[in-house]
Structure formats: structure tokens, C-alpha cells
Design a protein that fits this description.
The complex is a heterodimer of chains A (83) and B (250).
Chain A lengths: L2 E8 L2 E3 L5 E2 L3 H19 L6 E8 L5 E9 L11
Chain B lengths: L5 H10 L4 H8 L4 E5 L4 E3 L7 E7 L2 E6 L5 E7 L18 E4 L3 E7 H8 L3 H27 L2 H18 L3 E2 L2 E3 L4 H8 L3 H13 L3 E4 L2 E4 L2 H8 L22
Antiparallel strand pairs in B: 1-7, 2-6, 3-7, 4-5, 4-6, 8-9, 9-11, 10-11
Helix pairs in contact in B: 5-7, 5-8, 6-7
The chains are: A alpha+beta (83), B alpha+beta (250).
């Protein structure tokens, strides 16, 4: 099975996947990365504050096969408006 | 065959008292031993079970496939466990029993098990206690599913497996073999394999454990246990230190 690498970034700070995971196909890699992005967002969003999370999927030759981004943009009660 | 069910008698002794005559009764149960390759379905969801399966070597897991084909793993079982002991009373299986690694298992016919425990209330109670502890472990897991994040839940999983492996005599200091794949990890925690991989790398980056070539090494037990909020009470070991003191130091 081919190996894919998924790097996540959290407000610009990148966490590199140095191990990777074996997945059936480019499609499956995308599906699993999207699921992971949704799961991680569910954990991180309640921590408060603006959040941008990205997942970038690379194949074994380090070619980008998929990229996804989630933005949480809170305004109003409890949040200071950016000046 | 004396000694064949040693894994079982050792396990039972960690959770209760086993008299010499009860031990002899267990040793007298005919047991059919076989080698099971990794990935083999030992008992199938929906099957009418006529025997119980003792894990003698290796790991098995209980799982079920959802209609969309997604697998959920319920529990992992090291040597000494009889994951389908409940089948003595609930004959129709509602999940699969699968070899996570190459295994040695011993099948005991229900008829022979019943004969061994008949007129032995202490042995019956001990086996009953074993299945009750199984249920308590499920509750501890459900609490985790609802409340905790992937990092805490994965830490909790490793704390539990480490404790159980040590109590089953499978650890060497702070290391033990665990033939668990990333896919298995994802399906136990109910998360994407990508998320499981990232979470495991997070645990390693924090120097809490290492997991390489199917060997787990616990590096900082106190910190791992604290992160996991691991309270081993639900495992009901007679030895109160189990799961509290670093297993490598016991």
C-alpha cells in the first residue's frame, strides 16, 4: 500500500508528519485527512480564539495531493475586535 | 493438561482467590490448542458459539463492522483472557473475535466448562467476576469516548494495555510487544487513521512513550498516567498497586 504524509498547521505553526500512514489510494488519503481535520477542529475550536487549521497530504514523492483548511473566526461577546 | 491453562489461572489469581481444587478443575478442562494467523476471524458476528476461546499467546480483539463497512474495535485481549466467556450464557455472538497478531488459542467446549464449574460456586463466582470486570472496562471506555480528547484517550489506552500486559507477565521492564497497527489504533479510538497517527506522534514528541516495530516503551509513566487521568480501579486487581505504581517497578 502506498504511504502518505499529512502535515497539519495550527495558526501557521506546522507539525510535520515524519512517519506517514499506509492508505489504499489518493482518494482514501483525502477522506482520512478530511475526517482528521473535522475531528481535530472539534477538539480545538472550543479552546477559544481565532483558529486556522490546515491539513496537507503528500504522496511518497512529496507531491501535494490534497490540501484542506478550516477557519474559525469568532466575533462578539468575549472576543476583542482586531484593530 | 496441567499448565496449559496457566495463562488463565494466572489471570484469575490477579482478580480473586483460586483454591487448589478450583485450579485443578480448570486444568482438567479439555482444551484444543491451535495457531491462528494474524487477521483470522476466530469467532464470527452472528455465529452460535459452542466453545470459549482462551488466549494463550498473542493478542485478539473484539470488533464489529458497521453498515458502511467501518470497523469498530471494542477491546484488546492479551494472554490469559477469555474474550468470549460470556458466550457460555449468550450463545449468539454479537461481534467478531479476531486475531490481532499471530496467536495461540485454546478452545474449550461449553459443555466441558459447565461441567468444570458445576457444584463449584467459588469458581463460578470468579469467572463471573472476570466478565463483570470486562463490563467495567467498557464503562471506563465509554466515559473516555464522551468526555476526553484523542490525546487523553490514546494515553489511557496505553496505560490500560501496559498495566494489563504487566499483570499478565508480558512486560520486560517498561517495554512490551504490541502488534497493533495505525489502522487498529484508529478503529479502537473511533478516529481517522491520520488523526491516530498524529496523536501517537504527539505522545512520542512529548517523550511519554515510544512505539516502534510493534514494541511499546513507556518513558514517563507518571506523566502519561496523569495525562490520561488513568484510574485502574475498574480493573479490580487484588494488588492495589497495579496501574498506580509504574508497572516496571512492581
Amino acid at each position: 500500500m502506498p504511504r502518505f504524509y499529512v502535515d497539519f498547521s495550527h495558526n501557521g505553526e506546522v507539525i510535520h508528519d515524519t512517519v506517514g500512514q499506509e492508505l489504499d489510494s489518493v482518494d482514501e488519503a483525502k477522506r482520512e485527512a478530511v475526517k482528521a481535520l473535522a475531528e481535530i477542529s472539534a477538539e480545538e475550536i472550543p479552546r477559544d480564539g481565532p483558529l486556522t487549521l490546515t491539513a496537507t497530504v503528500y504522496d511518497e514523492s512529496r507531491k501535494v495531493t490534497f490540501r484542506g483548511k478550516i477557519t474559525f473566526d469568532p466575533t462578539g461577546h468575549g472576543f476583542i475586535e482586531p484593530t | 493438561m496441567a499448565g496449559t491453562v496457566e495463562a488463565l489461572t494466572s489471570r484469575l489469581e490477579t482478580i480473586g482467590d483460586l483454591s487448589d481444587s478450583d485450579r485443578a478443575a480448570l486444568n482438567s478442562i479439555p482444551i484444543h490448542i491451535s495457531s491462528i494467523p494474524r487477521g483470522t476471524e476466530i469467532v464470527a458476528d452472528g455465529e452460535i458459539a459452542t466453545s470459549c476461546c482462551l488466549v494463550i499467546e498473542g493478542y485478539v480483539y473484539r470488533s464489529k463492522l458497521r453498515p458502511d463497512g467501518q470497523r469498530q474495535i471494542f477491546s484488546l485481549h492479551p494472554a490469559g483472557d477469555i474474550p468470549d466467556l460470556h458466550s457460555l450464557h449468550l450463545e449468539k455472538m454479537d461481534h467478531n473475535l479476531v486475531a490481532m497478531s499471530d496467536c495461540t488459542v485454546g478452545r474449550m467446549d461449553h459443555r466441558d466448562v459447565r461441567e468444570a464449574i458445576e457444584d463449584r460456586p467459588s469458581l463460578t463466582a470468579l469467572l463471573w467476576r472476570d466478565t463483570l470486570i470486562d463490563a467495567a472496562a467498557f464503562r471506563a471506555w465509554m466515559l473516555m469516548l464522551g468526555a476526553a480528547e484523542a490525546l487523553e484517550r490514546m494515553a489511557h489506552l496505553f496505560c490500560e494495555i501496559y498495566t494489563r500486559a504487566m499483570m499478565a507477565g508480558l512486560t520486560e521492564g517498561n517495554s512490551f510487544r504490541l502488534p497493533l497497527t495505525q489502522s487498529d489504533l484508529g478503529d479502537i479510538l473511533g478516529i481517522s487513521v491520520v488523526h491516530a497517527n498524529r496523536t501517537l506522534q504527539d505522545l512520542r514528541a512529548r517523550r511519554l512513550l515510544d512505539f516502534d516495530q510493534h514494541v511499546v516503551t513507556i518513558l514517563q509513566w507518571e506523566k502519561l498516567r496523569s495525562l490520561a487521568r488513568f484510574d485502574p480501579s475498574y480493573l479490580h486487581y487484588l494488588d492495589r498497586r497495579a496501574g498506580r505504581v509504574d508497572p516496571a517497578k512492581m
